[in-house]
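Progress report, Aim 2. The chain analyzed during this reporting quarter is listed below.
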Amino acid sequence: MIEKKINDIRLEISKLIEKFHIPCLSIGILSKDVEYFLNFGFKDLEKCKPVNEYTLFCIASITKMFASLLTLKIQELGKLSIYDKISKYIQLKCLEDVTIENLLSHTSGIPAICYAENVINNIIKRRSTPYTDIENVINLFNIVSRYYKPGEKFLYLNEGYLVVEKILEKVCNEDFEKLMRKYILDPLDMSRTGFKLDNLEDIATPYLYRRGRYYKYSIPLCIRGDGGLISCSKDMLKFILMLINRGRFRDVEIISKESINEFEKERIRLPYNILDEDYYCLGLVKSILKSQNLVIYHHSGSILIHTSFLAYIPDRHVGVIVLQSGSNYPPILIGLKIISKILDIPLVCIKPLYIDYIYSKLEGKYISHSGIYSVKVVRKGGFLTIVENYRSTILIPEDISDKYCRFYTLSSDFRKIYAEFEIEDDTVLLRFERYLFKKVY
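Predicted C-alpha cells for the chain:
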C-alpha cells in the first residue's frame, strides 16, 4: 500500500518539476522506520549530473531546529538556562529583559534587522556584503530599537540566533561549529552535514530560473547558526528519526525526552495559519489539524537559491525532508502533499494544498465568447494573474471552492473589480470586467 502511495507521489512531483522549472529535488520520506528517497533532476545542469540522496543542499532556516536543540543540550549540561536574560552574557541595550527563549522563539520584540536579506540580495547581484562576520551582524543590535515587550509579538529575527550562537561559544569556550558536531551531528552519524564541508563538489548547483533560463549562483557560507547548515536527505532522515523517537537514535540518547518536550512547547500563536492553529516553539512550528486529530511539527528554509522543508509527526511515525535548488515552487507544498498522501488526508482539509489544487484548475489560456480575444491566467507565487497583451493584473482571492471562485483587483481609480470563475467538470468560465472567457487549455 505504501509503495503505491510513493509511486503516486513520484508521478505527481515529476509533473511539478517540468511545470515549474525546478532544477533538482531530493526528498526523504520516513514511514514506520522505512526510508524512501525520491530524487529528480540534475545537481549540475551543464554536466547533467543526477541528484541523489547524498547530494548536498543548504537547509537554510531548518538550521534553527539544530541550533535550538543544541542550546537545550547545553542547558542539560548545566551551562545556561533558556530563561536566562541575554544581559547575563552579552551587553546589548535593546536586548535588556530579553531571554534566550525569546530569541529562539522570535518573541524578542525586535523587527527583522535584515542582515540575511542583505547577504542574499548581494549574492544575487554578485556584489560584496559587510555581513560576513558575525561581530558585524551583532553590532547591528546597537543601532536598532525594540518595538514590543518580550513575548508580546512574533517577529522573525534571524540575528537573534547569532546572539545565541555567541552565548553558546562563551559558556562552553568552544566554537559553535565544533559544539554542533560534538553534541548533535556526530552522535547522529550525520557525516555529510556541516557549515563548511570539504567536498562541495557534491552540492546541488544553486540556480534561479528567470526569463526562460537558469542562472547559476554560489552558497553564502558566511551564514551559520540561523541558516547555514549544509546537508543531504540521507542525513536529514537520521535527524527526523531522532525527533520521532523522542531524542534517541540507535538506542543512544542524543538529547533527553524532557528537552524534546521543551523544544516542541508552544511559545506564541502565529499571526497566520497553515492549518487550523499554528504556534512557534523553539526553532520550529507546531501546526494543528483538528479534523484529523493531527499535530505536525515543521520548519521551512530559504536562501532563495536553495529552499527546503522538514516535517515530522511523532504519533504517526512519519517524517519528510524536501531539498530544492532554486525557489520556483514552495517545498512546503511538496512536503504537505506527501503527508496528505501517506496519511490519506483529503486535500480540502489542508488549506494551502486545496488552494494549490484549485489554482491548477484555473491556470491556462482563455478565449472570449466571440473567439477573437484571449488572455492567460498565470500563477505567480501565491497569486493568480490575468495576462493580456503587455498588462498583468494580480488577483486577490476572496472566495475559493470547487465550483466557484471569486477574486478582485483594483482599477486605477480604486474601484473594486471582480474576476469570477465558474467550474463545471472540465469547463471553466471567467467573468472579468466586461468580458466572458472560456478556458481552452
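The CA atoms of residues 144 and 269 lie 25 Å apart. Residues 363-439 form a domain with the Lipocalin fold (CATH 2.40.128.210). These observations will guide the mutagenesis work planned for the next reporting period.
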